[in-house]
Write a structure and sequence with these properties.
6-stranded antiparallel beta sheet; 4-stranded antiparallel beta sheet; 12 helices; flat
Length: 410
């Protein structure tokens, strides 16, 4: 092979004798067979249980559906162990799974990517149309011949990084020269490293020693807006969607962790009565932040191909933000006199999970509120026993969301 000047150029692919066929490794086949036999045994066992038992039509339909799903998974695993293969040709690749064979010519391939998993990286082939193909090296025992073929494809990650870097170099708002703009980018990266430590520090602070309490809630409420303001102010310098090929620092952590802190503190600290109103008005309270994220100006880049994806992914966090902040401020700013109800302790229990929660079981204390299992601080949990008299204080809430506390009647 010769280059544009006529000089000979070594082509690594010329040394590969095509086609190259990779079958599933022995270990992968054994694992697939074991899974197939396991799910098949479970499916057959469940069907036998159905035949011997007596269920209503809904029960038969539900359990029968589960049995059929187990058998379908079993058939797929066994068929994959028998049929699975990957075939390389000089100008094509073919991947055969249990019941599907997909073949792509080089002309149909846009490029390649590398995606990072928990314990390994996976090559990804991106076609011009259709879904991308993620390949597990260990399943087929891929060697240097595959790497040579794969690396000859256009590197889409490198292209997007180069495009994003060029975009920064062209942004006149970041400096008077390309060097100054790149220096500004480096300073932004260092600043974001510090900013992204704040949510983790906030999480540690809020659970280990939540004092001063109001400062924790204020920080959790403000940090997401810091990310939004920075993105609005410098869209060519900061990003919220965390695209892999984008060289701009990512502020998404400021949108994720603080809402979780607010939601967890609300769950641990406030016993609410009116949950319907909380979810409704919490959604309304979180919506401005979601809209601000969606409407934030974004630098034009091929790396950002789905502008709707980030708001959709962030919607649960914005819901946590609104509900958590509303529940906490409803209780913190409530200065009205509560109603007091005397009742007795009928039992106690402890819930162990990521956090330990202590509950008192109470005798009925209200005709309209059916809430007889209430979380209390550890010290008060230890101070009371079964049959002790306690008082439930029902607060109206600053924003009309009733909440309650249990404590001594004195």
């Amino acid at each position: 092979m010769r280059d544009a000047s006529g000089a000979l150029v070594h082509d690594p692919q010329s040394e590969i004798r095509y086609p190259v066929v990779y079958k599933m490794t022995t270990g992968s086949q054994i694992a697939s067979w074991i899974l197939g036999l396991f799910f098949g045994t479970c499916g057959v066992g469940l069907l036998m249980f159905l035949l011997q038992g007596s269920f209503d039509p809904i029960g038969y339909a539900f359990l029968g559906g589960i049995a059929l799903c187990l058998l379908a998974v079993s058939v797929y695993c066994i068929a994959y162990a028998m049929q699975g293969s990957l075939t390389l040709e000089a100008q094509a690749i073919e991947i055969r799974k249990a019941f599907i064979t997909r073949r792509l010519q080089r002309s149909e391939i846009l490029g390649r990517r590398i995606t990072q998993g928990r314990s390994a990286s996976y090559p990804v082939i991106v076609p011009r149309t259709g879904a991308s193909i993620t390949i597990e090296r260990s399943t087929f025992g891929l060697d240097d011949r595959f790497s040579t073929w794969f690396n000859a494809l256009p590197d889409l990650d490198a292209q997007e990084r180069a495009e994003a870097l060029a975009m920064v170099e062209r942004d006149a708002s970041l400096g008077s020269s390309a060097q100054e703009r790149l220096a500004t980018l480096e300073k932004a990266k260092q600043a974001v490293k510090v900013l992204n430590l704040l949510p983790m520090g906030l999480l540690f602070w809020s659970f280990v020693y939540p004092r001063p309490y109001a400062a924790i809630i204020a920080c959790a409420a403000v940090l997401p807006w810091v990310a939004v303001v920075l993105t609005w102010a410098k869209p060519g310098l900061f990003q919220l969607d965390g695209k892999k090929g984008d060289v701009r620092p990512n502020l998404a952590m400021l949108l994720i962790m603080p809402p979780l802190v607010l939601a967890m503190r609300a769950l641990l600290d406030v016993t609410l009565i009116d949950f319907r109103q909380l979810f409704l008005w919490g959604f309304v309270l979180g919506m401005p932040l979601c809209v601000a994220v969606f409407a934030a100006p974004k630098a034009s880049s091929k790396a950002t191909t789905k502008p709707w994806a980030l708001p959709l992914l962030m919607l649960p966090f914005m819901m946590a933000y609104g509900c958590g902040l509303l529940a906490l401020t409803d209780a913190m700013w409530d200065s009205a006199k509560p109603e007091v109800f005397r009742t007795a302790v009928t039992g106690k229990d402890i819930s162990h999970g990521k956090t330990t929660t202590y509950y008192l079981h109470l005798a009925p204390w209200s005709k309209t509120i059916d809430e007889d299992r209430i979380s209390v601080p550890h010290a008060y949990y230890e101070a009371v026993d079964k049959a002790d008299v306690v008082c439930v204080r029902l607060h109206p809430g600053k924003f009309g969301l009733r909440w309650m506390q249990v404590g001594p009647c004195g």
